Amino acid sequence: MDTAPTLTFPVIRGLEAGREYFVAMWTLRMLRRISVFHEDDLPPEMRSRRTLNPARVPEISEYILDNPDDYVLSAITVSIDSDLSFDPLPGESRLGILRVPMDARFVMNDGHHRRAAIIEVLKQRPELAQETIAVMFFRDTGLERCRQMFSDLNRHAIRPSRSLGLLYEQRDDKARLAKLVVMESEIFRNIMDMQKTSLAKRSRKLFTLSALHNACADFMTGMTTGNLADDAALARGFWEAVALEMPTWIQVKEGNLSAGEVREGFVHAHGITLQALGRSGNALLQSQPDDWRDHLVALRRIDWSRSNTELWDGRALVGGKVVRGNINLVLTTNVIKQVLGLPLDAEEQNVENTHRAAREPVGCMPK
């Protein structure tokens, strides 16, 4: 009789592509205690998956720590390099006990970042050790099979667009504020794509939710009250006031211009300008809290057309294309702030000086 020590735990047996696999509910403590074979020190040709990315681990652990009563983790997939024994329960064919030799080698096909994050979480929140995560076990049939499993598991794991992620986000107040602005605005409701992060040329939408989220976050910096409804009302009031100074936005909303035409012809129909408007609006409301609306009429003096390369080259445009780098955002913000009569801060002025020094002759700023 074989008396070698074994690890035993209840599982559900399944069949996938003709191969037997098992699903268990493991406590988070078990993930910490079970020895997993690490391949990170092996050459790439000998690994069955990518190496651990240290930057991802704190992201996942912070997510769990920030949401201890509301986190969700998908199943971990593991191959076991050993003989497995499944003992079905009486009268059952799928429910039973899986027996694994103690010296078995566990190889993570999918979930090694989640496991590393969970181990870090348990150092700070040991009370979570009894919570569980689903683990799928496969028999390890060699390196080639493990590699193919990793490829198959990740090939179709498409990350949702940032806009779609924000649309479904319920915890983050900045995301909730941006959604309230859209849902309660007759103007933005019709020109905002709530799912995509980049727009196709034929899209009927002018902006994306992710672009408005960035713009609202910059606009509300230092002005939030803690009351989401009030903050959203302030942001909506600002953006609707801006829209009234952008006739082409209104024409798109009313169906008199195509969104594609406006994006093709103007820089104000892109996320970088929306965010620059948010930054400028923040400075405007903090310096002119009572009559800020009156100052927005100056926006009509800006020539927003992409053909105005003397103004926009090196700012919102590089090589004729709209770009969203940090320096480009600052330079685009500078145009708006100066037109609104707002002073540039030290960083903005330094960036502006560098930009002007690099251009001969000096680019024309709107007066």
Automatic annotation (TrEMBL):
It comes from Thiocapsa marina 5811. InterPro entries: DGQHR-contain_dom, DNA_S_mod_DndB. Pfam families: DndB (PF14072). NCBIfam families: DGQHR, DNA_S_dndB. Signal peptide: none annotated. This is DNA sulfur modification protein DndB.
